Structure formats: C-alpha cells, structure tokens
Amino acid sequence: MNYVRIMRHLTTGQLAVRRILPAASLTAIESAIQRSEMTHDGEICFAVEAALSTVSLLRGQTARERAIEVFSQIRVWDTEYNNGVLIYLLLADRDVEIIVDRGIDAKVANGEWDNICHTMESAFRQQQFEAGIINGIDAVSYYLRIYFPPNLKQGGNELPDEPVVFF
C-alpha cells in the first residue's frame, strides 16, 4: 500500500481543482474543444478529478482504471463513428490518461496517445495546466482530423464540450 499516494489523495480536494483550473480556464478548455470539433467529426471530452475515493485507493485503483470508468460513465463511447476521446486528469497523481473508442483506436497506435499524455504531464510539472490541456486537445485533434474529417456525421455535436469536474 502506497501511503504517500493515499495522503496525497486525502489532501487534494475541490479547492485544488479550482486553484489550477479556475472558471476562466474551464471556459478556455471548452472553447478549445469547440474549435477543435469544427475541424473534424470526432468527439473530445475532458474530465478532471481531484482525487480518488478512499475505497478506490485501498483497492489500488490506477488513474487508467478510473479513466476507463469515467469514459463509460459520461458515455464517450456513445458516438456514431465510435470516435470519442476522453482526456482524463487525476489531479492528486498529476496523471493524464487518454481513453479512445474503438473507431479511432484502430487507427492510431497507443504510443501516440502516451506521448500526448507525457507532454501534458510535463506542462503540469511547470504549473501550466490550462496550456497543457489545450495543447493536448490540439494534439488529439490532429489525429481526429486525419481519420475523421468534417462532414461525415449527420447529428452534429454528439457529446457536451464542457469539461467534467469530479470532486
């Protein structure tokens, strides 16, 4: 059991999220997603969670496992072309995970998503959270533009662009 991780999660709360991602930053992230989705037919969601629950910590849940839960919970998989992408930030661990639906997963190697995550985490170490997230959105958009150019889908925006914040 990693007691340092448990303490970090117990002491990271909603104030930490509001400090690093104030309302203006959340609005900028939403705008970046909206701009991005005008250039492709993919769907991008961003979610941030302050910390895991005590039960999840004691079970040893990883950020990746939680990101998969969030992917399902907010229905990122529910797109016409199975091209939804979740960018998930677990603040207490400063860990970014990108979870992609099967339509885009079949086209882009996992290493590319990992590179985007590492670049974002590097920006976070420099306290550049908003810029790191927006750059991550832009990097994800690059692949969505290649494989899902605009005008394929009929339904318009399938998922909300507003960041999801868990406390």
Automatic annotation (TrEMBL):
Q: Which domain of life is it from?
A: Bacteria
Residue stretches making up the TPM domain: 20-141
Q: InterPro entries given for it?
A: TPM_dom
Pfam families for this protein: TPM_phosphatase (PF04536)
Q: Where are the transmembrane segments?
A: none
Q: Which PANTHER family match?
A: BLL7265 PROTEIN, UPF0603 PROTEIN YGCG
**What's the protein name?**
TLP18.3, Psb32 and MOLO-1 founding protein of phosphatase
Its source organism is: Nitrosomonas cryotolerans ATCC 49181
